[in-house]
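Bug report (template v2)

What were you trying to do?
Predict the complex of my protein with zinc ion.

What happened?
Run completed; filing so the output is reviewed.

Input:
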Amino acid sequence: MIATRIARIRARLAAEGVDALLVTQPSNVRYMSGFTAGHDATLLISGSAALLATDFRYYEQAERQAPDYGLFKLTKGLAEAFSDLAREAGARRVAFESTHLTYALHQELAKVEGVELAPIKGWVEELRAVKSPDELALMRRAVAISDAVIAALPELLQPGMTEKQLAWRIESFMHEHGADEPSFPIIAAGGPNGAMAHAVPSERPLVPGEPIVLDLGARVEGYCSDLTRTVCIGQPDARFREIYAIVLQAQQTAEAGIKAGLLGKDADALARQVIVEAGYGEAFGHGLGHGVGLDIHERPGAGARSEDRLEPGMAVTVEPGIYLPGWGGVRIEDLVVVTEGGVEILSAATKDPVVVVR
Ligand code: ZN
Ligand code: ZN
């Protein structure tokens, strides 16, 4: 699998007329090599060599996790070692990930004699966007953990507990059920706080009858899940039911219409049209969704301006929302996999918003 990924990058090198790709983005390092400490390693992939540069702390781990790579032992900084690294890979013209390599490191690398740098964008990210069955198997495990949180809400949720307390209970639950860690900071936003799409859990107590937006995900062997449900302790009022029904219809319309061949913006439009027609277009201020994998936000985009074309095997979220300042918000999010003729919905958590606490 790693060998196939390397071969695809080598084909790209040949097509673009460069000798090697320097991989610095941590998830790209992991994806291309299998080495899990992507923050502390750099890859150099040329037509004839695949090298993983890291320091003493990781020599053993790198040899174990990345057998397709030659270990390049870093005893000094990458800039000081860069000339040797490029020579070992037989590379003169080296492509670098311009959206990740820092300006400071670029300045240092550019001083190295005999090596020419060429900025590129998204080569590895494009490969990552389409998931293999092995990757999807890990994502299904992560999804099962986030689904289990929703199933456990009658035990986890108590009226009067603060958003922070609920977020911690959810985090602890996910660890107990096999998550390596949450895939992003959990959002638990009650009442008016839910009007902020990316609210941070506060000391505000959760009150029966109001909307509570819960956005959470687990990470399993690097791969993320991402799930949002909006719930209510006890019976919601008429306004909640009205807004919830619109968002649910928008979400189900998008899930029914998304298939391979659509652009990200076409997917977004499926849900947006429902919300606009209901008169809440201004209140849906973010994109429909995003790719998920080793990173919680990755290719493809599925927002109103995304020109990314959806392909079978891409994992994307479908998460329309309506946010009303002073009242709150409703967002419903599933993780789906694009297929030739539609989507497979991975998330199985109930969309019945009523939680009867035990
Ligand atoms: Zn989410
Ligand atoms: Zn999301």
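What did the reviewer find?
The chain has two domains: 2-128, 133-355. The two ends are 47 Å apart (CA to CA).
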